[in-house]
Amino acid sequence: MKIKMVKGFVALASAALMMVACTSTERAGTKQGMTSDVKEQKDSSSFAIPYDKYTLDNGLKVILHQDKSDPIVAIATIFHVGSSSEELGKTGFAHFFEHMAFNNSENVPLGANRKMIGELGGTRNGGTWNDGTIYYEVVPKDAFEKLLWIDSDRMGYMINTVTKDALEREKQVVKNEKRQRVDNRPYGHTGGVISSHLYPKDHPYNWPVIGSLEDLQNASLEDVKEFYAKYYGPNNATLVIAGDIDIEETKRLVKKWFGEIKKGQPVEKLEPRPVTLEKTISLSHEDNFAKLPELRLVFPTIEEYHKDSYALDALGEILSRGKRAPLYKVIVEDKKLAPSVSAYNSSREIAGEFTIRVRANAGVDLDDVKVAIEEALQKFEKEGFSDKDLQRIKVRQETQFYNSISSVLNKAFNLATYNEYAGSPDYLQKDIASIKAVTKDDILAAYDKYIKNHHYVMTSFVPKGQIELAVEGAQDAGVVEEEIVQGAEEEVVLSDTEDFPRTPSSFPRTEPPLGEAPLLTPPTVWRDELANGLKVLGIEHNELPLVQFSLDIDGGHYLDQPDKSGVAYILAELMMEGTQRKTAEELEDAIGLIGADIYISADDESMTISANTLSRNYKQTLALVEEMLLEPRFDEEEFERIKKRLLTYLKQREGDAQSVASVVSRKLLYGDGHILATPISGTSETVSRITLDDVKDFYYKNVSPSVAAYHIVGDVNQNTVLEALASLERSWKAKDVTWPSYETKGTDSEPQLYFIDIPNAKQSVIAAGQLVFPGGHEDYNNLVYANNRLGSGSSARLFQLLRIQKGYTYGAYSYVSRRKSMSSFRAQTSVRANVTKESLELLINEIERYKDSFTQEDLETTKNIILKRQTLEFETLSNMLGILSNISSYDLPLNYLQLEQDELTELTLTDFKQTIETYMSPEKMDYLIVGDAKTQLKRLEELEMGKPIVLDIHGNILLGKQL
């Protein structure tokens, strides 16, 4: 996975923050082979992440953090190697090794890394960015030593397993990722175009993280082994272990598993290398997938942790975030050129860049957008900004900080990132202090130093055939598109029996046993009901000074009129735009000044008002939510702006194959006439019909406490919650809500194959699905359990077959999409275009044989995964809020988790096979392919599924049978 690393995964805090405060003390009697220092809390009033840091003889930096609040352990390993460690002609190696490291090592079998951690009830992933690579896992504590075995083998015992076949095989997977994330997406090439022109050819940021496919294809075994030997030694890494651990025992185990790994070559630290431009560079590209014109201006700035980087971070928010922001005011409100605008600074290890991005409305000339940006910047220069704007940013950052350490994994990310890139976990204090110290003068000085009258790289990405919308005088960006060639890739099948050299070890590096099974204690749920019918459920959780709550109102999109789908969506957006007592700008200020985050959204069958806030500001936050709920402003101008923004979004979605597949799949599943056949956001046709009166009518008819539930989790007790809700109980009157009835599409007909043409698509999206039962059905859990070994994650059959064995895709999954009215069983993947037919055959065959191939071992594995994974489901406030939502949505008992555990343990192999036979039959599913018709449609006709029915991107038949 390629990721963008910003401030080490961390959103940092502000002036009022109780910060991490540590002092350094040398520990006497340090064990042989280690140097150690222990960090302890200096001030009892400060919030601390205590840790123990030491270094092994081989140079591996180790940080331990004990957190016994949940029976889980997280490990994060950062190698200080990213694309900046590469050279021209040999790019993409760091990202490639991130992939290779998940395959196998000398003592961990092929595919076991991806398969085993999931089967242990854990999660795992990795990421690469310009300056580093990270691997991370979270597991129940009994699997902790197994993680040490896997991670240490990856660090010290992996390179011998990289054979020529393994190299060629993984190249295909990386190519699939590039096609999915870059080549087959709107604006996917923008980042690469910008970096290659912003930075000189010899600058480490000149090429994209994922690298060049040509470089990767040309890479030899000797090339990659040389790169590995240089950068992947333990002396170039930080290992963080956080969670329910014993510190001394963990040190013993770390020394056992990691201590014998040989020290690598010394790695020179890259020095900061910010760049300047001698002239402004203007580039254009006709994007095959884009439906809207987009303009980006990118200014070179400064490296991370530099004093100016903090001021530039704040500048980005001031220019674009909020109703008073000059870019928003001019481009969105005044000139109505775009639905939104963003500006942000991205400082990395050796350089940085400041981006202004505008994805304009359809048909807008980007010359007009460029003029508007210049006008907005002049407005900023003339009017500046207020102290209140800066205060709002800092208070919000405090809330973000606490959210950033709400899980042991996030704590591990923090500790690892600061240690590896700032020299010590203690740098957190300085980072926070630097944010706290930013002044208005700093921000204005940074603007003058990096933005005002400075050169930049500008990109105009416009829809195919609309080059006239590009900024005048822009030069062609020279994007090279990959051709689709049938049979271009040779299929490589890996064997786990390959012979390779074994590294000597002082002990057998065999798989260690599980530890003692963790005790699982679900959180205590309390429940009440207000006089107006509002259900209230809560969990008190005092680990952090945070509160999260949601008000879920049944209905949402399900109560839309089919010919005006999108009303609920627009209502949710409009309720964010002021109240009867506050303009949109005043409401934004009121929320921002208390560091809260309030968001209103519509879903298929509900509307939700969600909030995240510091516990000290809970009552103020709830008061604002009540005002937004009961006193919507219904401003005509805001309504028109939201409607136009939605129409722009719907147009933009037409160029993304994944989005097209998602929208049309609904129509194929539910059939014409059913409300769920249309997306929550509606279609261009239905949204165009909606008036403000429609939105008001929906609100007055359907927003009622009689169909609502209030869920709250965090540092607040039941009495305080109910006391704060007293006003809402008095003011929000119940009403009867009428529910429509819809006929669902039957599943008795023959399965159909549908095709949507996305010309020159580099990948094909394959989507399959069938309706099953209402969400509250007694078989829901059984179907979720039965699906686990088929498509639930990287350890399941579809992923293992299509990615691990065949290398056709970046991922393949199946899942149950739960809806109260009617749920569905679906499977989906995105494969390289030239194996579309083969992938569809494999997917169908795998589902078809699933019942017969499902064994007693699969049954036991499923039970273990689901029971163990519950240890991860109580950790964060969001996790617990989901528990409360399930209880109220599906009328479950408070102890439903325990009851489901008991139910699962009683299920037999016969029960699983019966569920599979009833609900997972390929003969009851319809199949949709979204890809390049020119190269793939004829090949699909070779399947014994009849001639594919060709649809347009909205799901309308172009030729063939009727729906």
From TrEMBL:
Residues 497-521 are annotated as: Disordered. InterPro entries: Metalloenz_LuxS/M16 (IPR011249), Pept_M16_N (IPR011765), Peptidase_M16 (IPR050626), Peptidase_M16_C (IPR007863). This is Pitrilysin family protein. The lineage of its organism: Bacteria, Pseudomonadati, Pseudomonadota, Gammaproteobacteria, Kangiellales. Residues 219-394, 689-865 form the Peptidase M16 C-terminal domain. It comes from Kangiella japonica. Residues 61-186, 543-648 form the Peptidase M16 N-terminal domain. Keywords: Hydrolase, Metalloprotease, Protease, Signal, Zinc. It comes from the Bacteria. The keyword DNA damage does not apply. Residues 1-28 form the signal peptide. Belongs to the peptidase M16 family.
